[in-house]
């Protein structure tokens, strides 16, 4: 059975552009409940740790640099079928391929500066949520 939680980041491009509020509104209107949230900033080392699964990919170094270039918002979201429904809401990784009306289609600037992150599995949703939030911050 699919889990009911996913994890998201509003990335530096969307935060800097002042789109965090509009993106959170779309997330809530799609039926996701915010159960933990904070504005923070990654160091290059922490960005490297978060995206460690991509460390062999050619874009890894640039991704770590970009993800530590400014503030982000990290959040744990709750909804039935959360991981899959959230990926539908945000659209394809490359905004050029994202469906009309998706968050990335509306707000993303490029495949790297693609406005939001969404977990790709229930297992990674738990790992990524735990990366940002302590047990005390995950009380809901
Ligand atoms: P995200 O869903 O956060 O997961 C990995 C990130 O790497 C991705 O979004 C993009 O921001 C970034 N990225 C940069 N280049 C690529 C690429 N060619 N393919 C996939 N992801 C990329």
TrEMBL record:
Protein name: Nucleoside diphosphate kinase
Nucleoside diphosphate kinase-like domain location: 3-140
A biological process from GO: CTP biosynthetic process
CDD domains: NDPk_I
UniProt family annotation: Belongs to the NDK family.
Binding site residues for ATP: 11, 59, 87, 93, 104, 114
Active-site residues, as the UniProt record annotates them: 117 (pros-phosphohistidine intermediate)
InterPro entries in alphabetical order: NDK-like_dom (IPR034907), NDK-like_dom_sf (IPR036850), Nucleoside_diP_kinase (IPR001564)
Species classification: Bacteria, Pseudomonadati, Bacteroidota, Cytophagia, Cytophagales
Molecular-function GO term, any one: nucleoside diphosphate kinase activity
Coiled coil start-end: none
Matches recorded under PANTHER family: NUCLEOSIDE DIPHOSPHATE KINASE, NUCLEOSIDE DIPHOSPHATE KINASE DDB_G0292928-RELATED
Keywords carried by this UniProt record: ATP-binding, Kinase, Nucleotide-binding, Phosphoprotein, Transferase
Co-factor(s): Mg(2+)
Signal peptide bounds: none
Protein origin, superkingdom: Bacteria
